[in-house]
Amino acid sequence: MKHSIVLLVGITLAILAGSAYAQDAENVEQVGRIYNQWVNAQDVEVVGDLAYVAAGISGLQIVDLSDKNNPEVIGYCEDVYASVVKVSGEYAYVLGGCLYIVNITDPENPFEVGCYHTWEYPRDVAVSGDYAFIVDQSIVMGRELRFGYLSVVNITDPENPEFEGWYDTPGDPYGVAVSGDFAYVAEAPIGDPWNIVGGGLCVVNISDPRNPEEAGFWGRNGFARGITISGDYAYIMYYGSMRVVNITDPENPRGIGYYDSPEGAVDIAISGDYAYLATGSNLHVLNIADPENPEHVGDYDTPGYPSAVSISGDYAYVADQTHGLRVVNINDPENPEEEGCHEVPGKAYNIAVSGNYAYVADDTSGLRVVNITDYQNPQEVGYYDTPGFARGVTVSDDYAYVADNASGLRIVNITDPENPQEVGYYDTPGHARGVAVSGDHAYVADGREGLRVVNITDPENPQEVGYYDSPGWAYNVAVSDDFAYIADGQEGDLRVLNITDPENPQEVGYYRTPGSAYDVKVFGDYAYVLTRRDGLFIVNISDPENPQVVGNCETRESAFSLAVSGSYAYVANASRGLRVVNIDDPENPEEVGYYMTPGYARGVALSEDGLIYVADQTNVGIYRFTDPVKVDDSAISIPGEFILFPAYPNPFNAITRLSYNLPVPTDVSLRVYDLSGRAVAILMDGRQTAGIHTAAWNPKSAATGVYCIRMEADKFSAVRKVVLVR
């Protein structure tokens, strides 16, 4: 029965193999981007002067190491979720929810070419010759059937990886390495205390990739978490130790030595007579000249939490989950020293837009100031590193007010955006998550400590003058006229407070939403309340003492923030990106557009020119929404020069779009050519008005390859290259 299940899965995977990810959007296009931030560095592999970093939802990041003191990101592929990376030839093999195959021929423009879906969640991959060997976590079917497996994938054609064979591991596999005709699987045991199976090292003969078979094992019932092979030895990581196993005879592996680590081992790399063991907080250097007696000889204390290590020449490259990539000189293994790093900035949590600047609440990196005069090429011009975790921001006159989590309210003078300076703060008793400013007061949503009212008449000496102890967890606040509206997350409430006397805010009404309320905005007679799971609720507040819900629009799970303007509400949804809701009819709100952003959408703001800024943790995306039913040409600004902007997405496999500027009415030709110069598509051929225009190419039958899109208008001409991936 077990093998029949695997056979069925194998057939299913063969059908799914090679399917590529396509950007999902409707009526919304991305027109710009700020930052390339890593959520966390989970794995690293170094080849020559390039480091390939698996950075979670931030995808595959490629770092130029030619200057060890200043490593620099030169390319990235966000179309993949990256937890493990291996490099072989022209391709990087990346594990996330499946095996992604990424073409890295041009490191500045890596792109996914193929994908292979495993049965469960893949944990590790090894590449040897024409095959990738993947271990999947064990699964539970019913109450008794539990197993993991090693799958063999033929990667002769990287665009169409194919299932070749499998081996059902007796335990729960965590790591795999390949040497010669054998795959070595590190696995933890599974089962109950009376029936434990698997664990330790499982040796699999892969000389026939279609029929891998167990050849030997060592250390059954041990909790092996990972493995590296060097010469005749396998170095196996356990929770609190490293084990050395002689594999000269793969059918009879023998444990010969060990090193007890004070912390759990997470990765290991071997170079010459030394093993470099990444643990929970540092890098241990072990002398393994005598494999039977590994000796601890040196340490490198990482600033955060190491997750992986790779060795190249005289350097160890450590992937640090919270502090990016660290470059460590190991010329003297007993005294490793950090020589350089690519420090990861914070995570974009929220954003406010005022005039020509965007103000980003960037978690651990504080407040970042970005000039958005040219939204196609936004530039960070200044920052202030707040002491806490910047989670919310609002701008009023010459000041940015930052909700800095446990560090309370920070007041930053932004008169000179290139040199923002903190002038005052109030250390709220809770965790400041959101802030609104009205008149002489800042209203701080302070988590479990409710609403704090702070007098900011003197920004250098803000003083709390009143508070309201909300029953739940105050996530955000909006102020309109004499009332404050609190999104009270834990209880799922909209709380309405009379703030005529800011020193004594009084609750006058509330509405209990079905789910946790995370954000609230007020316009006219309506409060727009965003709940995390149940979407957007429109509440009539014409009578603040009796708020009444009149409409609801489901925006999917994980909604965090919203902005409202005119006929639309814009929702930042961590798992579903940017959602646009038409609110013309408050009783029947309707989603009319969306864009699946590459990161976790946590904050959203609008600029005066109608562009949408989404704080997406990994980046700040700049988007334009066009309602096909309502197009107001009068709102379109007239650009000052001809420009053909880069295509997005690029590479692509379904549709790509280009925007272009026309400063005057003119005839426009926009055509797609292959590399032989043959025209394969006409995107535009005719007269157009002055303004910002968009064209889309959705090739139905074009082959994978590089194409050129040429624009001619008046005396202007320009070419943009795009890569089509099938």
Total strand count, please? 64
Overall structural class, as computed from helix and strand content, comes to mainly beta
The CATH architecture term of the domain at 118-260 is: 7 Propeller
Strand content: over 45%
Low-confidence stretches: 1-23, 141-145, 632-636
Please state the CA-atom Rg, rounded to the nearest Å.
28 Å
**What is the CATH domain class of the domain at 118-260?**
Mainly Beta
Biggest sheet, open or closed, and with what strands and sense? 5 strands, antiparallel
- Identify the strand order in the major beta sheet: 1-54-53-52-51
Total DSSP helices: 1
N-to-C CA distance: 36 Å
- Per the CATH scheme, the topology name of the domain at 118-260 is Methylamine Dehydrogenase, Chain H
CATH superfamily of the domain at 118-260: YVTN repeat-like/Quinoprotein amine dehydrogenase
- Average per-residue pLDDT, rounded, comes to 89
Residues in helices, as a percent range:
under 10%
**Which term fits the overall shape?**
globular
Your description of this structure?
With 726 residues, the protein is an all-beta fold. Among the domains are: 1-34 and 560-629, no CATH class; 118-260, 7 Propeller (Methylamine Dehydrogenase, Chain H), CATH 2.130.10; 642-724, Immunoglobulin-like (Sandwich). The strands form 16 sheets. Strands 1-54-53-52-51 form a five-stranded antiparallel beta sheet, with no helix packed on it. Strands 2-57-56-55 form a four-stranded antiparallel beta sheet, with no helix packed on it. A four-stranded antiparallel beta sheet has the order 3-4-5-6, with no helix packed on it. It starts with a helix and ends with a strand. Residues 1-23, 141-145 and 632-636 have low confidence and may be disordered.
